[in-house]
Prior knowledge:
Elements: H1 2-38, H2 46-58, H3 60-75, H4 80-100, H5 107-130, H6 145-177, H7 181-191
Amino acid sequence: xxxxxxxxxxxxxxxxxxxxxxxxxxxxxxxxxxxxxxxxxxxxxxxxxxxxxxxxxxxxxxxxxxxxxxxxxxxxxxxxxxxxxxxxxxxxxxxxxxxxxxxxxxxxxxxxxxxxxxxxxxxxxxxxxxxxxxxxxxxxxxxxxxxxxxxxxxxxxxxxxxxxxxxxxxxxxxxxxxxxxxxxxxxxxxxx
Length: 192
């Protein structure tokens, strides 16, 4: 019974995550340009900023997939493999940044999506080989309203907390954007 509940929870999380990811992608694509203007992004870098963020927003689902897979493995007590996949993804991201940044305007975004996608693939392969307990089957996707309600409540709480933290970053970025593109570049290098 515990295994069935676990697989139903995974299936429900997957459905919720896909729906929310699609929703966030659509919202992000619609409001990205107005947000960049609202944040006073300098005109000489707004096209590059838009191109980078557009590509990242387009592939929000990849970030969701990695976070879900890593979270599932950590939930059953395996915190090592998500860390290994994160390290592989980070190293790959650095290598791809060096290759793509000189070739494409959104090169860093392409590198990020490819490296995160690689970590998702590694997580899924690992789960198929070592933790099939985390792989739901068709029957586990049956809608359980109470389970969905519980997962949505938990997700909303965590999402709200992250929004508060992110709001601080947005306010900081607004202030930095008013200082010009050279300060933005310096701040970006400092953050990295």
